[in-house]
Design brief:
Elements: E1 15-20, E2 35-36, E3 39-40, H1 41-49, E4 57-63, H2 69-77, E5 82-86, H3 91-101, E6 106-111, H4 119-132, E7 136-138, E8 152-155, H5 156-165, H6 169-174, H7 177-181, E9 191-193, H8 211-224, H9 233-242, H10 246-249
Parallel strand pairs: 1-4, 1-6, 4-5, 7-9
Antiparallel strand pairs: 2-3, 6-8, 7-8
Length: 253
């Protein structure tokens, strides 16, 4: 139950973030281990997520093939992070396996190509789920936040439901795609989209898919240094626009 302010305590709602990561990206292999300042991209993401007030735990989900053994070793021995390994292309099965090992009421889906993910936005999406008793809440469709700030929050039951309906390989690879494309969703399924306050920032690209994206992030680090661990979303958006960083990576989808 919420308290007098309409807020829920962490003890009453358990929320776990699942970050999907791999070394075998075709566009920028090993990108999650690329350095942004003194941190790897994945380390930076995890450190920023530590500031979330709503996440109880973070688990990284990686493929179980030998190409990703180095990532598993790094997560275990250097970052000391919980890891679940599973099929590389059937990412949904990885999520189901992880949910069986780490039961929770809500799961937050994140991807490791978002090293500048903002914990305040993560918390806003989780709070939206709790406030509306949502089965699925997100900020991805329609997109009004920067590319790289994507957050999705699902009830455990919603994740299980997707698993039974996702026969399309694309749905299984992209985990939640079926919730946006399925032609006959249950009428009582509660889905909410969080929109960015003010003007849309969907044309701001702060994701990590190409070498140009990495250069953008290194420029941002050179500007903010250690503050990159804590800097908020609006300051990042403002700097990207001010410095016209879209000239470096704005031509990518």
């Amino acid at each position: 139950m919420p308290d007098a302010r309409g807020l829920y305590s962490m003890q009453e709602v358990e929320t776990i973030a699942f970050i999907q990561a791999r070394l075998t990206s075709s566009r920028l292999p090993n990108k999650v281990l690329e350095k942004i300042g003194p941190w790897t991209a994945l380390e930076l993401m995890l450190k920023r997520l530590e500031l979330s007030k709503r996440l109880d735990r973070i688990v990284v989900l990686i493929p179980d093939n030998h190409q990703n053994d180095r990532l598993s070793d790094y997560l275990n021995s250097v970052l000391h992070c919980a890891v679940v390994r599973g099929d590389e292309t059937d990412v949904l099965s990885r999520f189901i396996k992880a949910s069986e090992q780490f039961p929770a009421k809500y799961y937050v889906r994140l991807t490791a190509d978002c090293p500048l993910i903002c914990p305040d936005i993560v918390d806003q999406v989780i709070n939206l789920s709790i406030r509306e008793d949502a089965d699925y809440s997100h900020n991805v469709s329609p997109a009004t936040f920067p590319n790289g700030f994507d957050v999705e929050c699902l009830k455990a039951g919603t994740l299980a439901w997707i698993d039974t309906k996702a026969t399309n390989p694309s749905w299984r690879e992209h985990v939640t795609l079926g919730l946006r494309e399925h032609s006959s969703l249950p009428s009582d399924l509660k889905i909410f989209n969080l929109e960015h306050d003010g003007d849309s920032a969907a044309n701001v690209r702060l994701t990590l898919d190409y070498i140009e994206d990495l250069e953008v992030m290194r420029i941002i680090y050179r500007k903010f240094g250690e503050r990159l661990l804590t800097i908020g979303s609006e300051e990042l958006i403002e700097f990207y626009r001010q410095e016209k960083l879209f000239q470096l990576n704005g031509h990518f989808d």
